[in-house]
Amino acid sequence: MITLDDVRKALELETFDTDSAHRKMAPMPRSTSRPESRNDGPNLSAVLLLLYPQLESLYFVMIKRPEYPGVHSGQIGLPGGRCEDGETFLETALREANEEIGVAAAQVDIVGNLTPIYIAPSDFEVHPFVGYASERPMWRPDPAEVAGIIEMPVRTLLDHTIKVREQWTVRDFTLEVPFYAFQGHKIWGATAIMLSEFENRLLKVLA
């Protein structure tokens, strides 16, 4: 059984190969850094990997985005979004979790954070935080931003049978896309990359 103490230890590892963990679930080819030709800064955002107890296990929540004219239409993601002026990254993650799925900041204890990543198609720099709610929240999804709630046991991330690779054509590019296959969903892209870091940190602690 994976415990919250395991998670804390995983996030506090002094040595960890983040790049290798990211590559395991990153579409290839993939740009990992922002082009130097861009003079302005990237869009800034933050997300929350929210853990909570359920059925004597540790779970986390994801959301399915609605269909819309944009690069992340219909994708599975962690609650989160764009930073507003004057916000810290943590404040953004907590505000967005409240707006998108109805989880108040007071319900969340911050356990730690994962490594920020850059998403080239949308020019976003994403800062992921890991939080814990002592009870399973009562979800109140905003229908304008959330088409569905997906709850996954943390231990499922460690199941190699849910990791699949396919060749996709995305915006006229052919990519080899790894994803987590869960309950009929394909969890890929930035979300899979962040979850891969979380998974591989846990594996190092549990070994």
Structure in words:
The protein is α+β, with helices and mostly antiparallel strands and 207 residues long. The chain has a single domain (4-159, 188-202), classed as Nucleoside Triphosphate Pyrophosphohydrolase. Helices cover 22% and strands 33% of the residues. It contains four helices and eleven strands; from the N terminus they run H-H-E-E-E-E-H-E-E-E-E-E-E-E-H. The strands form two sheets. Strands 1, 2, 3, 4, 5, 6, 7 and 8 form an eight-stranded mixed sheet that branches. A hairpin with a 2-residue loop joins strand 9 and strand 10. Helix 1 (4-11) packs across helix 4. The longest helix has 18 residues, at 189-206. The two termini are 13 Å apart. The mean pLDDT is 92.
Entry summary:
The chain is of the alpha+beta class.
Please provide the ordered H/E string of secondary-structure elements: HHEEEEHEEEEEEEH
| CATH fold name | Nucleoside Triphosphate Pyrophosphohydrolase
Uncertain runs are none
Largest sheet: 8 strands, mixed
- Number of helices, where a helix is a run of at least 4 consecutive DSSP H or I residues: 4
Structural class: alpha+beta
The fourth-level CATH homologous superfamily is: Nucleoside Triphosphate Pyrophosphohydrolase
Characterize the overall form. globular
What is the radius of gyration computed over CA atoms, rounded to a whole number of angstroms?
16 Å
Q: How many domains?
A: 1
The overall strand count is 11
Strand content: 25-35%
Cα end-to-end separation: 13 Å
Give the CATH architecture.
Alpha-Beta Complex
The level of helicity is: 10-25%
